Structure formats: C-alpha cells, structure tokens
C-alpha cells in the first residue's frame, strides 16, 4: 500500500510526484520498461530498426531518449498496443490496478488529456515519448510547464481555484485509503486555498504560468521531486 503524509507545504510536491510516479507505473504496466537490470541488455539485442526508423530518428532528435531506448519503448508499445495508440479507457484500467484502494478514474482522465496533446482522443507512441521525455528527463522548467498544463484543465493559460480543486479531489479520490493521516472531507478545498495563498502573487484569483514556475522553483520539496525519476529507463 502506498502511504503519503499530506502536509500543506508539500501540496504541490505531492501532486507533481504523483504525476511522475503514476506515469512511470503506467509505462511498467504496459510492458514498456522493466526495472530488473538483467533484462535490459537482452531487450536491446532483440530490438530492431525494422519499425519506422525515420520516425525513431526524428523522435531521438526531439526527445531525450537514445535510439536504443526508443527501440525498446516502441517494441513494448506495439506488443501491448497493436493499434499503435492508447485510449482513455486503457489509462483508467491501468490506474485502477495501481490504486485499488481508491477511484482513479478522474485523475486518469486529466492525465490522459495532458498526454493527448493534439486532443484527438488517443495517445500515440510519439505523444507518449514526448511526455515521458519531459517528465523523466526534462529540465525543471519543462517539467513545471507540463505540470501547469495538467492543472490548467481548460487550457486558457490560467489555473483557477475550481480547476485546482478538481485536480485535488481527483488525487484524493485516487489515493483513497492509502493516505496518512486520514483526510477530512474539506481537505481538498483547504489545500487549494493554501496553494493560491502561496502562488497567486497579485491576488487576482488565478495563477499564471509565471507565478506557478516562480513559486515552485523557490520550494525545495518541489525541486527535489523533479529529480526523483530521472534516468529510470
């Protein structure tokens, strides 16, 4: 069981860590990465360049993965997703396995929309690679931009209290009984208020990308969380 200690000062850290950790788990459950070191070299030997080498070379230039890493990722992706895309239901099914004590449906929906950059209702291998490249190996600025995009549900360039409350409720619902101490019913709203007191510098009721990044960069907990899952593949 996954246990997290929820503190007001660590609110943003929890949200960002869940984003990265859940995304990493999604990769593992899809068969795209294996945490056992003795299988990596075998997988590299089995990977071939028969699958769209031009596309892989382009992704290598655009992402922070090597060609061999992309070959492994693509091979696993095609084995698990023969259609070449992942739909929202797949996200929901995988997160329901990862968080059996809670309801991960809403969070999986938000995360799927963040990966589905062209908003066509599916996540392609290219979408997946570019998102993971940022989450696992991107700069702090890139990771925070990605997190802001997740929180900015309607993509208007601002995070409102309503949007942040939706995200917080989704995270709390997903964690379910795994949180410690047990959360009060009004905890999501209280955390949203803390979030805005800290980040809404001009008190206009919304958080801009500049306010978000500036506040996060000043928070040591958030900066540490940005480095948790680098170079895992």
UniProtKB/TrEMBL annotation:
Keyword Cell membrane set for record: yes
Membrane disposition: Peripheral membrane protein
Gene3D superfamilies found in the cross-reference section: EF-hand (1.10.238.10)
One GO process term, biological-process aspect: regulation of potassium ion transmembrane transport
Localization per Swiss-Prot or TrEMBL: Cell membrane; Cytoplasm; Peroxisome
A GO cellular component entry from the record: peroxisome
Record bears the keyword Phosphoprotein: yes
Protein name as it appears in the record: Kv channel-interacting protein 4
Upper lineage: Eukaryota, Metazoa, Chordata, Craniata, Vertebrata
């Amino acid at each position: 069981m996954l246990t997290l200690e929820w503190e007001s000062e660590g609110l943003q850290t929890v949200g960002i860590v869940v984003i990265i950790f859940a995304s990493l788990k999604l990769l593992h459950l899809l068969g795209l990465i294996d945490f056992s070191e003795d299988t990596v070299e075998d997988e590299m030997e089995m990977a071939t360049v028969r699958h769209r080498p031009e596309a892989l070379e382009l992704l290598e230039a655009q992402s922070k993965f090597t060609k061999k890493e992309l070959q492994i990722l693509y091979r696993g992706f095609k084995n698990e997703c023969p259609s070449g895309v992942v739909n929202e239901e797949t996200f929901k099914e995988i997160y329901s396995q990862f968080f059996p004590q809670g309801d991960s449906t809403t969070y999986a929906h938000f995360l799927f929309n963040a990966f589905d950059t062209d908003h066509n209702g599916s996540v392609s291998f290219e979408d997946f690679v570019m998102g993971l490249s940022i989450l696992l190996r991107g700069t702090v600025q890139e990771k925070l931009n990605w997190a802001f995009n997740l929180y900015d549900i309607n993509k208007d360039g601002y995070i409102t209290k309503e949007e942040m409350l939706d995200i917080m409720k989704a995270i709390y619902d997903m964690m379910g009984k795994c949180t410690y101490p047990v959360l009060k019913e009004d905890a999501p709203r209280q955390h949203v208020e803390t979030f805005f007191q800290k980040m809404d510098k001009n008190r206009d009721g919304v958080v801009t990308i500049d306010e978000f990044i500036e506040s996060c960069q000043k928070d040591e907990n958030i900066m540490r969380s940005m480095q948790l899952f680098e170079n895992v593949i």
